[in-house]
């Protein structure tokens, strides 16, 4: 077996491991931005196409998780600019509610989550971005800073403002 064939096989194994390890996370990142299963799945595929295109530079990537999230985030943001709000899946809130609760409680929680998501959508873009990455994707401040290309102190300030603004709006509506 030629050396390049061995390297190609190793690259395929690494890609398969990356897909298995990160595809669910990347889907959640894309879906939190796009609220469309089909669009989020397309983003995940596009991320791994980018990985293939840049496979030779993969050893230089310091934090693979953050690098992949950043690609998914940017691709999702680009896609979001192109899709109409009607294409966004209203069932997104339902995916955030526990399945083990009674139906009436599930409906009430879904409605409350939908109200929160509507208010998140109304936040200024920078605040909305950090809130989505923090709350839905559970990224830490250093990871968010890398994904969004900002300083950690800027991320903390944006997150604080986003949480305060969201809390005020929900209290005003009576949804807090």
TrEMBL record:
It comes from the Bacteria. GO terms for molecular function: DNA binding; sigma factor activity. This is RNA polymerase sigma-70 factor (ECF subfamily). Residues 114-166 form the RNA polymerase sigma factor 70 region 4 type domain. Keywords: DNA-binding, Sigma factor, Transcription, Transcription regulation. Transmembrane segments: none annotated. InterPro entries: RNA_pol_sigma-70-like (IPR039425), RNA_pol_sigma-70_dom (IPR014284), RNA_pol_sigma70_r2 (IPR007627), RNA_pol_sigma70_r4_t2 (IPR013249), RNA_pol_sigma_r2 (IPR013325), RNA_pol_sigma_r3/r4-like (IPR013324), WH-like_DNA-bd_sf (IPR036388). Belongs to the sigma-70 factor family. ECF subfamily. Residues 18-83 form the RNA polymerase sigma-70 region domain. NCBIfam families: sigma70-ECF (TIGR02937). The keyword Repressor does not apply. GO terms for biological process: DNA-templated transcription initiation. The keyword Phosphoprotein does not apply.
